[in-house]
Design brief:
- The structure is a homotetramer.
- In chain A, helix 5 runs parallel beside helix 6, helix 6 runs antiparallel to helix 10 and helix 7 crosses helix 8.
- Chain A has 2 domains: about 130 residues, Rossmann fold; about 170 residues, Dihydrodipicolinate Reductase, domain 2 (2-Layer Sandwich), CATH 3.30.360.
- The first copy, chain A, has a 7-stranded mixed β-sheet with strand order 12-11-7-10-9-8-15. In chain A, strands 3-2-1-4-5-6 form a 6-stranded parallel β-sheet, sandwiched between helices. In chain A, strands 13-14 form a two-stranded antiparallel sheet.
- The first copy, chain A, is an alpha/beta fold and about 350 residues long.
Chain lengths: ~350, ~350, ~350, ~350
């Protein structure tokens, strides 16, 4: 049964002790989900420089609280950490965890500078810690199933893939830079395209712009095409201007058929009248749409830690998607297709 | 956010102490859901004559365990009980709870004999306890929304309602009697028809039979029509022979439009090939389909207890649906339409 | 290619000469469709007492015109007739055609009184003419395919069938009598249920009423259940109060799966906004929904005439559906289930 | 009623005499549709150098036959011509028709060389003949409705548009050159994108390749992105490798909602079993999908001729789509985005 079971046999199973670093929106989400939905792990400590956020969360979770990550990493109860801090701090934290011999689940993107990411991955390899990157959509029931079906050859060779990721109009995040949409939003779709096509990208071409006047720097609507070594093309639509909900779709065209992931809906009620049939649109936002996938990615990570197997989303995956995102940024800024080799050589 | 939150402000809110009577499939389900999903209540005690079931559940839930309900009802920590025992025991337990001044959430059906139910309801009224019956589908996001839309006049006067409740082929429950399908399965749809139409039934006509040869006594496939005072007709399809999943649908035809509740699906992946487009069928079974509604009915009950308001599904609702189910049994056995007045006078 | 081809090879094929008797709505429809869509036949003569209607139609079709059917039946160019007159005249015309040795395509119902129908069928058999009844839905791409799939065992033994036939609010036909809805509208669904289940009916139960106040005699909304010898049950919904279009659906529940026919739509455009996703409702009326099936039933009839094979919808089918409709009338009037044997013995 | 009516009032209306030039697949299609579905025009003459094709068609249509177009253009019964010859001959024929003062309906593309097209358009303007280009999809019930809804502001400013045009694997047309897919197939989508966005293109980027090994020269699968002056982006998917039918879809993402055109289906039957729900895929090919739109574009053209109004698809539209297609060819060959200005200056 897929509900929050508290079954007897769990008692005997060792529960993995997790440290949570960063208690913003994503950190709090991970913390709450571990507490309520994951019987195989618990948050034993949280760390955040913002004590006003960390204290109440630690109280709710019944965990210790640390002002900084170094102290948390020294806690012997902490077997692994969840990193949910701003992207530019990720690599430093991963390296510190590697030095401390603690496993790491890190939110996307894995880091900011590719050279720092490369150094970090070398440290991870040396230390033999497990590192999993937070591409949660791979663990979504529908996206995950679609990838498995493609991998099983159900539609033959994939020839093209379309991804739609249209977000509802939201508050403008503070401090956006030109191109952030690619590292924040498109990166999920870049990873999914690479995951589904099972091929490495060769070039990207990102077009778009600021379509809503009041948003002046970072583009709010972009269309990205990616060419892959296999010859397949991916098309990714992203926008922050969606008025009809959190629209998340996938379609793969293959030599022997097509596969599609439709939107999930908040309910299944339709109403027909003289003006047509009205069905529910997509879920309102990512927490409704992807909640289960956040539980599943952590469940999988915890199994890697306790069962000593390799994570399903590796540091190399995190590095690849970040390189693709940087290629998108350059393509968008320079209005031309950009080869991945231009970025990798940077 | 609709996930299992453990929020700071809950700390101050009084958590309602629940006693769970009966630890079979439904009792265990309620117990686990209270533990993992309901921050406003906790199971403080369980009672079941079958100690081999009660002991491990109480251990998981961290609750006391009693061999019988009387002891549990004397526990001052128990403010309200959940009754999940066999139907013939419901009335005795409700009366005992009323005598002890404990509120009651009782699984459907409210009881077995209508006269015993009437006595019980009189006791409930005298004692002023809250009594809620487990018609969980009223709390389902889709069915609940459909009823609200009808009540708000979105489709004008409802003229007819169709309900489909086709269950997957399952193990045969032990000790089925001829007609049990109506008190066990159809009763949910009878309640939903009455809820959506907001009218009282006048007659029922239940047709069907044993369509799978190996199942000899209780019909496995029935079609029930119900006439209501408003002039509307309800048609209810039930079967235990569904091979395509747990098919749960509603359609209301009104003077100004129609409303429909479609099946929920386990995923949103479709695959197109030369042989057509394959989509997911319904959820596999009731736990997947209705899990959230079980949480929501208990959340609502707990709010009634702590906030001193009347339950949304009353003892009178429980009584009405049971009378309808008995009318179905008689109609099926006698192959004729049966007036509700024939049953009420029994 | 399924368009109106005028192919060279048709030249050699003999074109069947048809006489059209009755030039009301249905007669004019058949006439126009033969002219524009059926390369294998042509209307050589029309007959109607209402000359003001017959004359312009005959001019459009380039056919002769007769004031009465007897004259038309004597025309040697007429090989077969289409009867599209009021139901009470059908049997007299069929008998006259049989006497004249002309084949007959007759609109539903085959006749009015069952005893007159029986006499007529005896004449038809004696004369060896072909007789096809206008249950056009059997020739619809979707309904026809569904029946073939059931017959081929795709869903195992059919256990129940649901038919929805909700018509848009229309002008009230003049001279409606109490129960006409069953002989005019429900009769299509009664035939379809019998066709799909491939079993003979044993009893019917028709409930409903006049739900729109201004319509006082004939019920506008009915729910009919039919029991069949196979043990299966059919449920038929009919109403003249549909506000959302011409709603025509079928669902068959079988021991190994279900089959459904969804509504056809006038277009495939959907629009999503914050208030949901709006799709097209059903087609507006029967001409849009069933036009092709009218062409196909006549094409099939013409093939029977020219190729000397038996019609797919026989006089016996017409008789069976009419008997079912009369059982519905009696059931509705007497508020009780009616056995077919009560009607057949009448 | 939307069927092939032969109504009395048509008699008075003048019927436009059409000459059909070219009797290959498209010419024969137009000829048959005029004969069977268009009461406002008739084919009075056909011309084709291939007499073995022209003679039988002229016999079927009851029209004269000419060995070359010049003779046909001299026929005083011919008021307008339909050009359905190979693309490289279009401009010569249009100019001849202009010289003869005959109106022209010309299949897409309007011509081959842009400079020849420009000369031709100048002749057309001088002669004041009507010229309509065969972008039939503009007249499709669904695509046409979608464009009207966008134009009416139903989804606010359009931000991006997606078009899918995946064709079933077909015989390889003889003599394909590298890039023909753009002038033959993509050109429909290029026109539709420009039509729906109501903006002029600025650049295109066409990627793809030969994905099926046995097809060596012209790409079989391409993804084209087009930037428009409005800032919107169009993405067009074309392939000749579709195994699931003739897949034709549109989706427009706007600042206030989205609009989508789904596939039409050959039937509306679905079957549910343990392996899911199987629905009909798209129509098998373009004749089934777009037949009505071919009738409607000709009906509209005939109204322009008889009613002296301007065609809805102009020579300028034909020129614009052809220029876009040539930009795609160059972009594909040179693997880079191509500005429309590069083509227009050629």
């Amino acid at each position: 049964m897929n509900f929050c079971a508290v079954s007897g046999s769990d008692k005997e199973r060792a529960v993995v002790g997790l440290g949570l670093v960063g208690v913003g929106r994503m950190g709090a989400l991970h913390g709450h989900l571990v507490a309520s939905r994951l019987e195989t792990a618990r948050i034993v400590a949280v760390a955040d420089p913002e004590e006003t956020l960390a204290a109440p969360l630690s109280e709710e979770l019944g965990s210790k609280v640390y002002g900084d990550a170094s102290a948390l990493l020294r806690d012997p109860e902490v077997e692994a950490i969840i990193i949910a801090t701003p992207p530019r701090t990720h690599c430093v934290l991963i390296k510190a965890a590697a030095a401390a011999g603690k496993h790491v689940f890190c939110e996307k993107p894995i880091g900011w500078d590719l050279s720092e990411i490369d150094e970090t991955l070398a440290e991870v390899e040396r230390s033999q810690i497990k590192l999993q990157i937070g591409f949660n959509r791979r663990f979504d029931a529908s996206f995950g199933k679609a990838q498995k079906m493609v991998a099983a050859g159900k539609i033959g060779t994939p020839l093209s893939v379309h991804l739609i990721g249209w977000d509802p109009i939201a508050e403008r995040p503070r401090g956006r830079e030109d191109g952030d949409i690619f590292l924040d939003t498109t990166i999920h779709d870049l990873d999914m395209a690479r995951f589904v096509l099972n091929s490495e990208p060769t070039s990207v071409y990102a077009q778009g712009g600021v379509m809503a006047e009041e948003r002046l720097d970072d583009p709010d609507t972009v269309v990205t095409t990616v060419r892959f070594e296999s010859g397949a093309t991916a098309v990714i639509d992203n926008s922050r201007l969606s008025t009809h909900g959190y629209d998340q779709r996938l379609e793969v065209f293959g030599a022997e058929g097509i596969l599609a992931v439709a939107n999930e809906q908040p309910h299944r009620v339709s109403a027909a009248s003289a003006s047509g049939v009205v069905d529910a649109g997509p879920q309102p936002f990512f927490t409704e749409r992807y909640l289960d996938s956040y539980v599943e990615e952590l469940r999988s990570f915890v199994e890697c830690v306790s069962g000593d197997r390799e994570p399903e989303v590796t540091g190399r995956d995190g590095r690849a998607a970040t390189a693709m995102a940087w290629a998108c940024v350059r393509s968008y800024r320079e209005s031309r297709p950009v080869e991945l080799s231009e970025i990798d050589g940077a």
